[in-house]
Write a structure and sequence with these properties.
mainly alpha
Length: 74
């Protein structure tokens, strides 16, 4: 009787361990994806700061005026 109870408890602990393992794997995958996104953003940021002034020169004056109106910049 005690052996049966211990085997049921062992089975439950095994199932809980498997679930925690799956959750850990999912969190690891999510962490990796976030790391990749962070790396991409760290590359895109400096590129935008380089491209930004060139885009400002190419933007037509009427569109620049409209953007200033919407953002409230002088």
């Amino acid at each position: 009787m005690i052996g049966l109870l211990l085997s049921v408890i062992g089975l439950l602990l095994s199932v809980i361990g498997s679930l925690l393992s799956v959750i850990g794997s999912l969190l690891s995958v999510i962490g990796s994806l976030l790391s990749v996104i962070g790396s991409l953003l760290s590359v895109i940021g400096p590129l935008l700061s380089v491209i930004g002034p060139h885009l400002a020169m190419v933007t037509p004056p009427s569109l620049r005026f409209k953007i200033r109106q919407e953002t409230g910049e002088p």
